[in-house]
Design a protein that fits this description.
Layout (H helix, E strand, L loop, with lengths): L3 H14 L4 H4 L2 H75 L1
Length: 103
C-alpha cells in the first residue's frame, strides 16, 4: 500500500524523468543498487536494535546488582540498629545499677 508521501514522490519522479512509469526509467542495475541500499539500511537498523537490546540487558543486570546492594545495606543497617539498642539498654542498666549502689 502506498502512502501519500510515496505517491507524491512518485509523481515528482515521473515529472523529473519525463516518463509515465518509474520502472521504465530504471535500469536493472539501478534497481539492484536501490535494493542493495535498502538491504544495507535494514542491516544497520537491525544492528542498532541489537545494540540497544544488549544495553537494556546490561542495564537490567546492573540494576539487579544495585538492588542486591541496597538489600544488603538494609540488613547491615538493621544489625547496627539492633546493636545500638542493645548498647543503650546496657548503658541504662549500668546507670540504674550504679545509681542503686550509691543509694
Amino acid at each position: 500500500m502506498l502512502s501519500v508521501v510515496d505517491c507524491d514522490s512518485e509523481e515528482s519522479l515521473k515529472k523529473l524523468i519525463g516518463r509515465k512509469e518509474i520502472e521504465d526509467a530504471l535500469t536493472n542495475q539501478e534497481s539492484l543498487m536501490i535494493v542493495a541500499r535498502n538491504l544495507e539500511v535494514t542491516h544497520r537498523v537491525d544492528g542498532v536494535v541489537r545494540d540497544v537490546d544488549s544495553n537494556v540487558k546490561a542495564t537490567k543486570v546492573l540494576t539487579e546488582d544495585v538492588d542486591d546492594n541496597v538489600k544488603a545495606t538494609e540488613v547491615l543497617i538493621g544489625d547496627i540498629d539492633d546493636d545500638v539498642k542493645v548498647n543503650i539498654l546496657h548503658m541504662v542498666c549500668n546507670i540504674f545499677f550504679l545509681s542503686s549502689c550509691t543509694n
